[in-house]
Amino acid sequence: MCDMEPSPYGDRRVDTREIERNQRTRKEEGDTLDAMPDRLNFTDSDDANRLLAKDGLALLIGMLLDQQFPMERAFYGPFLLKERLGEELDVNRIADWDPETMEAVFKGPPAIHRYPSSMAKRTQDLCRTIVNEYDGSADNIWVTADSGAELLTRLEALPGFGMGKSRIFVGLLGKRLGVAPVGWEESAADWPSIADVASFEDVAVLREQKRAMKAANKA
Fold first, then answer.
1. Is 11 within 8 Å of 18 (Cβ atoms)?
2. Residue 53 vs residues 4, 62, 118: alpha-carbon distances, Å
3. Tens of pLDDT along 35-80?
4. Contact 116, 107 (CB under 8 A)
5. Would you tell me how many other CB atoms lie within 10 Å of the CB of residue 163?
6. CA–CA separation, 171 vs 4, rounded Å?
7. Coil vs helix vs strand at 182
8. Could you give all domains of the chain from N- to C-terminal order, each with its CATH number?
């Protein structure tokens, strides 16, 4: 890895020159990085679904917001944020935004999340991490990961991402976007999650599955 300025978050920064090399290697090994969908049907908004598919930052923010909040509304959040900012989601702009202004953006109405203040802060913390460690590109988190284990470790280190959320996101990348570093299946969630949603109708099915799982755990 090339010499870099030390990161205040540790030594997890990536050499962006790895991107082209890793993409080429995976393409030669038959990876499906080029088989990208034009939408991820996690919401009832076609515009929001298209944004999730084309913008890695939007997808990460949606996953961040998917906590104590309906899934479809969480993944609609990045589109709502984009509309309120008046431009494409810019990781540097969000990272540098005045915290009070960002909190007001999250509060709406309507609110982007059930807990707008804390999620506004977490979103900015996430963006700062991407700027400081991944050269300002969310996609670098997974494009430069050499294995599923490395990808999982990177995700777990992100603000607002724990083990469960990170494993779900590994599965989402592999199942929905074809981002499949070696061993990703072992690092992905092995329970029903947003990674299994192919159509918006599946969101309701997943919600019932999660309710059944919670009931079983209580029993």
1. no
2. 31, 11, 26
3. 579 999 999 999 999 999 999 999 999 999 999 999 999 999 999 9
4. yes
5. 11
6. 31
7. strand
8. 30-218 (1.10.340.30)
Distance CA 22, CA 141 (A): 12
Q: What distance in Å separates the CA atoms of residue 25 and residue 199, rounded to the nearest whole number?
A: 31
CA 154/CA 142 separation, integer angstroms: 8
- The C-alpha atoms of residue 133 and residue 95 are separated, in whole angstroms, by 13
Nearest to 35 by CA among 139, 213, 136, 176: 176
Task: Tell me the HSE value of 74 on the side-chain side, using a 13 A CA sphere.
Answer: 18
Condensed to tens digits (0 to 9), the pLDDT of residues 102-157 reads 999 999 999 999 999 999 999 999 999 999 999 999 999 999 999 999 999 999 99
Nearest-angstrom CA–CA distance, 155 and 166: 5
Beta bridge partners of 147: 182
Residues β-bridged to residue 182 = 147
Reply yes or no: is the peptide bond before residue 159 cis, omega within 30 of 0. Answer: no
Residue 196 corresponds to which amino acid? D
Three-state DSSP class for 110?
A: coil
- Distance of alpha carbon 12 from alpha carbon 118, whole angstroms: 25
Query: What single-letter DSSP state applies at residue 41?
Result: -
How many CB atoms sit inside 10 A of residue 159's CB? 16
